[in-house]
Structures are given as structure tokens and as C-alpha cells.
Amino acid sequence: MAIDFRIQHTDISTSGRCGVLTLSRGVQISTPCFMPVGTRGVVKSVSPQEVWGLGYRMVLCNAYHLYLRPGHDVVSRLGKLHHFMNWHGGILTDSGGFQVFSLVGLRKVTSEGVEFRSHIDGSTHFFSPEKSMEVQAALGSDIAMCLDDVVAYPVEKHVAAQAVDRTYEWAKRCAAVQKTVDPALFGIVQGSTFPDLRQESAEGLVSLDLDGYAIGGLSVGEPSDVMLEVLETTVPFIPQRLPRYLMGVGTPVDILDGVVRGVDMFDCVLPTRNARNGKLFTSFGSINIRNARYRDDPEPVDSKCSCELCSNYSRSYLRHLIQEKEIYGHRLSTIHNLAFYQRLMADLREAIREGKLSTYYGQFLARMEDSND
Amino acid sequence: MAIDFRIQHTDISTSGRCGVLTLSRGVQISTPCFMPVGTRGVVKSVSPQEVWGLGYRMVLCNAYHLYLRPGHDVVSRLGKLHHFMNWHGGILTDSGGFQVFSLVGLRKVTSEGVEFRSHIDGSTHFFSPEKSMEVQAALGSDIAMCLDDVVAYPVEKHVAAQAVDRTYEWAKRCAAVQKTVDPALFGIVQGSTFPDLRQESAEGLVSLDLDGYAIGGLSVGEPSDVMLEVLETTVPFIPQRLPRYLMGVGTPVDILDGVVRGVDMFDCVLPTRNARNGKLFTSFGSINIRNARYRDDPEPVDSKCSCELCSNYSRSYLRHLIQEKEIYGHRLSTIHNLAFYQRLMADLREAIREGKLSTYYGQFLARMEDSND
């Protein structure tokens, strides 16, 4: 077994559960977990020691980006991704399906796979399910994702149905490759906003007996309530005993909404990208440090936070760094936002253990509404 | 006395000397020293803890930049610069003279001071010697520099002579202000490439009994041998017992050339700026990590270096980060170059203590010529 997943507690009044995901390399990840995004083999602006020190044990890297540069062959020769980027935690790799989906006008999808043009130099490439698995295995991923066919929102049903079929066929081919390579393999449920398609997609993929299942095709522009409906119609078709992963999500509230519906894993660029733009998550809501009101503010960003930023610097100084586009400002605010997300996940796990997830949810929303810039 | 400077050893066959500069706040700096540049109140891409950990005890900040943003008044209200930027070492502030000099076409110099337009928003400002001292004192500088009149290279003698006079008059006015504020005060010797003007400038400033003297108006485009001639004609007119500071210099070889001529202090953006462009100093010469030859290179940048970069990462990984403009790549290469410069200064001090500076100089040049990309 490439991974082991144990559920330790389930909440009383919601579908929330907490547990431990153990990778074949021995790394243990408490769930529900958030995975910082390290697209190109680094979580932007922070060191792997800092990511680890904040309590994270798994990051997401992108097969598509690393395939293009520096090349999965280079990474493989350099001792694979963990060694290359000096990260001793777990690595989940995105298959490239979503990135290729984002290359509007630069891709051609057939039943064989996806032909796409590089966003860097326009060169033509082809990702088949087999190729995607080869790349993810060469990178040394702990958890590989099946290549999936992602469709836009909104989409006509027949297009969504074709993508469900294709995603299933491709997952079957990924599963065949997985027998000969190291990574665990997660399927990705598609089906857009159509409950029957979501069910069909989930049931098909579950029949392949993969190591975990992601809910894909979300965070592509659909309203928040649509995302939650899809989640509610999809999660019941994923076996209780397996990890469930909501890809590319999201805001703190999105994560709460996912956790109460039984999701175990999340990833998103939001905390790191927002940080670089000066948008910080705090215990009293989010703030934009570029706001002129912080020019003379001697207080820490969040007096309840003990991260490197909040322990050592004023809002005034961070505002100055961000205004001047100083690299160290990007680092400090990234550390802060990642500390916030890690604390959120720890609080959620604690609330589940104590059977108080509903109460926590209500309190959190009230706190967040206190102050927003 | 705002600072104390003790010379502990002088070299046998050169003018090199090593000593200790003690600031009023108790910070001790071994000389010859290099000061990393923290223009806007941060050494680009690294934390003050990292700068300190590398052994640096003094950085240079720019009065001009901090005056414009966030404003010296803001910094002052926030507890002055040391507290603002969380730096417990010394801070030397540039007066703004050189920055204003760089604003070609945007400045007007009179005997009263310099009127200039902000490089940020075009707003008009006026720096008199008194204003420059007020700004530097408000920032909480440990060593302030006199506002000086910098001229381009090459320049006609009568223009250089006028700048010498003006620099002297301004220094007198700075010295008058200094009696009422905290920072120590260094004069800046001008005179372009004219030995008699350099002598006149030095003698005039020395008569003001300042705490130390800088050789200014260099690194403005003159050839290297011209810089060394100026150094040789200027240094003898600065009292032995006082610190001598060569502003804006330079490459490792420039620093060696300065140290053998009796210079004690240096600052330059070179190690930090080059780092961000992938140009790294090593024990076998400088390399450009963007070179394709490093694509698959599993070796550390410099096997003789034990910095965060060289202890943990391959050339291949750093090349990848720099190619992708990843912020963490800027940090790692900055740490590396600052570690190199600090080791260079420590080696120079050691060579002076052992009376072997000439030998070290020769060996260093030979090593540097071994390999250059």
C-alpha cells in the first residue's frame, strides 16, 4: 500500500473527520490538511525549512511546470524532487490536466491525451495519461494525480459527459502504469455541476480502486453555492475510508465549508499569492496592508499571531516593504498567511476531535465579519 | 565620543590595518569591514537575522530613499530605523548627496543645498546640509555622512574645485548640527582626479575634526587605475587614527586594492545585486549560474562554502530558481554572496594580523583568474 489513511475522529453534527495520512516514505500528515503550492519546486518566497517549521508536511508541485522547466528528466537525474528542492515532507503532484486546461486556445484534447503549446516558448507537447504518470514518477511524487479532462463553467451537459468518460478512460490507463511506479494515485471526479454525471464519474473511478479521490473541475469560476452543491452530491460516492481532496480550494471559509462536508485535503495559491499582494489573513478578518491607514501603525499585523512577521515587525514596516516591492516583505507576509492557514487547520482538527465543528464554524464566520478592508 | 576606533594591527609591507570600530550603542565592528546595502531599510531579499548570522554588524541605509518613502518622520515615530527594521547592528546612512547626484536633469545645486525632484512622483524637495542631518538623525543613524557635492567623471578642474569648496562649507554646517544630535559624523573627501584638490578637500575636512572620513566621488565611471591613484593621493591626508571609508566600492579585487592602501570600510550593492542576477562569487572566481552548463550540475555552487545555498542545494536547482525568477533563488544567492564577502573580509583581517597581506593579495588574484564565466 503506497499510503495509509486512518480516520481518528468524526464530528457529531457534520460530516467532518480528522485523521492521519501516512506516506510510504513515513511522513505523517494530520488531516484535514492544507497543502501550500510549490508550483516550480519551491513555495514562492519561503524556504522548505520555513514551510516545515510552520507545521506543513505536504506541498503540491506541478508536473506541467516542472516538465517544461527544468524538465522532469533533469529533476530525476538530480535525485528527484525531494532532494532537488530539499524538502523532507510529502509531495503531491498535479497531473498537468488543470494547467493544460488553463491554456485556452493552446490545447487540443483527444481520447489519446492532450496536445498543448508551452506557455513559455510556444513549443508543442503531448501529455497522455501514460506520459503524465511517467513525469510524476520521474519527479518522485508521493501522490500522483490522474490526468483528467477539465471543462469550463458553465458547460453544456454533453461536453461534461464526454469529459467524464475521458477522465475515466484516462484514469484506467494511469492505474495500469501505477502498478510499475512508486507514487500513490488519486482519481479526479469530474461532471461539472450535473449531479448524475458527478455520481457516474465518482462510481467509475471508485471501481478502479485508487488510493484517494479528488473533487476536480471546481474553482473554475462557479459561484460558491454551486461549489458546495457539487461537493454535497459528490462526496457520498467516495468511500468513507479514503482521503478526499478538494483541488484548488480556497478561502478560509471555503475550507470550512469543505471540512464540514467531509473533505480531508486542500491546496490553493491564495495564502501565498495574496501575501505577495499585501493581503493578509488575520484572526479578525483579512486586511490589505497597502491601505494608507497602516502607514504609521506600530502594531503587529495580528497580535494573536506569533509568526516571524508578527513577532518582530509593525504594520507600518510591512506596508513599507510591500509598497516598495521588497522581496523580504513577500517572504514575511507569506510566512504570516501560511501560519494563519496552518492554525486554521489545527483549530479545525481540534474542533472535530471535540465534536464542536458546528460551533467553531459559527464563531469563525462571526470573527471574520468583524473587520474587512 | 560618538564612536571609538582602535587600530590593532598594521600590515608589514602594505598600508593595510585591522581594528575595531565601536559605536555608541555598543556594537563592535571588526575592520576592514564591508557593509551590505539596505537602501530602503532592508538588505534586499534577506532578513536582518540572516545578515547578523553571516557576521555583519553594520549596514548602510539611504537617507534619500527613506526620506521619500516611508518618510523619515514615519520611521522616527515608529521608534527609528533600528527598531523599524529590527536590526540590532550598526547603521550608517548615506546623506543623500550621491543619490541626488544620480538624478541627472532632476537636480539644481546651489550653495544653500540641492533642490531635486523625486524619482518616484516628480515632487520637488530640498536637501540642505541641515536638512540632511535632520533626516539622518530622525532615522536614528549611528554614523551620518555629510551632504557632499558629487561631480561626474571626467570633469573640468574648476567645477571639481567648486564642489570641493561647497563640500567643505556643507560639512561645516553638518558639523554644527551634529553638536545637537546623536549620530557620529563622517566627512566625504571630493576633488575628482586632481591630487591637489583631493589634498585641499581632505585637509579642509580634517580641520573640522570629524569622526571619520570617506573617499567620495569614486565609482562614478572612472577606470580602476584612476580610482587607485586617487586613493593613494587621498589616504595620506586622512589621520591614521581615524576610520577611512571608500564609498560604493566594490568588487573583491577593488576591496583588496582599497585595504592594501589603508581603507577600513566599504559598501556596495554588488554582492546583493549580482546575486539576484545569478552572478555568484566563489573561491575559484565568479560564475553566472544561468549558464546552460549548470543545468544538470549536482554540485554545490562552491564546495568550500557552508552557507544555506551551498549546504543544501545543487547548482542545477539554483539555476532553475534564478531562471524562473523565484524569490527564494534571490535569497539563496544573496546569502551566498554576502557569505563570500564576509569570508573575504575575515581573511583580509587575518592576513593583516599575520603580516601576510601581500602574499594573500597575490594568491587571491591567482585564484580568481582560475575560472570566470
Q: Tell me the quaternary state.
A: homodimer
Strand order of the largest sheet of chain A: 4-14-13-12-11-10-6-5
Overall tally of structural domains of chain A? 2
Query: Which architecture name of the largest domain in chain A does CATH use?
Result: Alpha-Beta Barrel
Instruction: Please report the total strand number of chain A as a whole number.
Output: 16
Largest interface: A-B, 36 and 36 residues
Poorly predicted tracts of residues of chain A: none
Describe the structure.
The structure is a homodimer of 373-residue chains. With 373 residues, chain A is α/β, with parallel strands linked by helices. Helices cover 42% and strands 19% of the residues of chain A. Chain A has helices at residues 48-53, 63-68, 72-77, 80-85, 97-102, 129-139, 157-178, 195-206, 224-234, 252-260, 270-276, 308-312, 315-323, 327-353, 357-370; strands at residues 3-10, 17-23, 28-31, 33-35, 58-62, 90-94, 107-109, 114-117, 124-127, 143-145, 184-189, 212-215, 244-246, 265-267, 279-282, 285-288. An 8-stranded parallel β-sheet of chain A has the order 4-14-13-12-11-10-6-5. In chain A, strands 1-2-3 form a 3-stranded antiparallel β-sheet. Chain A has a 3-stranded antiparallel β-sheet with strand order 7-8-9. The mean pLDDT of chain A is 95.
